[in-house]
Design goal:
There is one protein chain. The longest helix has 31 residues. Helices cover 79% and strands 0% of the residues. It has 17 helices and no strands. It has 449 residues and is mainly α. The protein is globular, with a radius of gyration of 21 Å.
Length: 449
């Protein structure tokens, strides 16, 4: 449910713009982007807090509370009378998702014997791939009825999960008794990412040197600096930033960030292009976008042995190059007249293979480089980086296209795809660095490298 929500809402975004725009007024992409970014920012800030809360008070109550919050917030999203109300409901929805994601894996592992945990973990991760393949079509089908069904569909799933969860989930004992992680740090990182996103999405309208834009950028810098200082000094920081000093973990985190930005640009730009330029329906758009996401879990599965044999670096480098090729294909062959076979489909296929090679491998490379006693903390940092990259990617796309989607030209879309290609090449460079073996193997110690 939580993984599917990302894909469904992306496909539904143009319909939301039509629903909340005034008579005859084109959709305001700058405002609509907060439907996506409010969710991603909140999720990034609360993942660690929710995970450690589960360790303290028990995974079962935190998970069930998260499901209840997500379900109620989904209903609030469906009933939202205005865009600001929808954005607020999305923040609450993300808080519920943050409580579900880390605790769901912990509960799953508590129900299987030790020898089955690797297979169970891979199955849990594969749900994300299933959501990626099914999400565009599900979103298109639901939007055909009404955009509100994108959120209504979560309600029966959430209720069924609550009933089943109360009956069968294990009551594992809480493990931690120490202090909670830095809650002020969570506030600061939220403010920093939100202010940066606000500056990017409003910059074209306010002017890049306008007072509002400069003020938001200054707030982002100050909040980011405050977060960094607290993370380095607090006894229980939200993110252990010292881990970034580990060469392979720091490199993999950088690769995850830049590749995630490129991926977010690709995902939303393709939705906007199909619906606003080619004037396709949400359902047709969803069907058109299936091949890329569907390839991701297949490629990930087929290349598992290759990663073990050749290492993470070559796969990341190849994935970055293929994804860059997918974006450059669109730059070279894009047409305002619908041409799925010559334009979008080849890009989808190249991009799907690239994502399957690079994204999961970058995460695995980072986690593998961590000392054993920092695996959970580092994994939370990597997952939060992925959410932040999605936020930045959407904001960059809005800055490049402008706030009026219907007015964006082919040249502006080409610029966005070229930027995504450049970022993908950076991630390929990270793969080359990993392949050369700087800091090879699992790190030792506590991250004071």
């Amino acid at each position: 449910m939580t993984n599917l929500d990302l894909w469904i809402v992306n496909v539904a975004l143009p319909a939301l713009g039509t629903a909340f725009s005034g008579p005859g007024r084109p959709a305001d992409l700058a405002s609509l982007s907060w439907v996506l970014n409010a969710y991603a920012i909140t999720l990034a800030a609360l993942l660690v807090v929710a995970g450690r809360t589960g360790d303290r008070v028990g995974q079962r109550p935190v998970f069930l509370t998260g499901v209840a919050v997500f379900t109620l917030a989904s209903l609030a999203c469906a009933l939202a009378p205005s865009l600001p109300v929808l954005v607020i409901a999305r923040v609450v929805q993300a808080a519920g998702a943050a409580a579900q994601l880390p605790t769901s894996l912990a509960l799953l592992l508590a129900t299987v014997p030790a020898e089955g945990r690797t297979r169970a973990t891979r199955g849990w991760a594969a749900v994300g791939g299933l959501a990626a393949a099914a999400g565009p079509v599900a979103g298109g089908l639901l939007v055909q009825v009404d955009w509100r069904w994108v959120f209504v569909i979560n309600v029966p799933i959430g209720l069924a999960t609550l009933l089943a969860g109360r009956a069968v989930l294990p009551r594992a004992a809480a493990r931690e008794t120490g202090p909670m992680p830095d809650l002020l740090g969570a506030v600061l990182v939220t403010v920093a990412v939100a202010a940066l996103s606000g500056a990017l999405v409003q910059g074209p309208e306010w002017g890049w040197l306008g007072g509002g834009t400069v003020g938001l950028l200054a707030l982002a810098v100050l909040a980011g600096a405050g977060f960094a200082v607290r993370s380095l000094r607090h006894p229980r920081p939200l993110f252990e930033l010292r881990l970034l000093r580990l060469p392979r973990f720091g490199g993999a985190s950088l690769g995850t960030l830049v590749f995630g930005v490129a991926f977010a640009i690709m995902l939303l730009s393709n939705v906007l292009w199909c619906q606003d330029v080619w004037h396709w329906s949400a359902l047709r758009t969803g069907l058109a976008l299936v091949p890329g996401p569907a390839l991701v879990p297949v490629v990930t599965l087929l290349t598992a042995r290759a990663a073990h044999r050749f290492g993470h670096g070559p796969l990341v480098a190849a994935g970055g190059l293929l994804f860059a090729g997918a974006m450059l294909w669109r730059v070279a062959f894009v047409s305002v007249r619908p041409d799925y076979v010559g334009d979008l489909l080849p890009s989808q296929l190249l991009g799907g293979i690239g994502v399957g090679l690079a994204l999961g491998t970058l995460v695995a490379a980072g986690v593998h480089a961590l000392p054993p006693d920092r695996a959970a903390t580092g994994s939370a940092l990597v997952n939060s980086v992925r959410q932040i990259s999605a936020t930045v990617g959407v904001a960059v796309l809005v800055a490049l296209l402008g706030s009026r989607t219907g007015a964006a030209s082919r040249a502006e879309f080409r610029t966005a795809w070229a930027v995504a290609a450049g970022l993908s090449l950076v991630s390929a460079g990270v793969g080359v660095h990993l392949a050369r073996g700087g800091g090879r193997g699992r790190a030792r110690g506590t991250g004071r490298a």
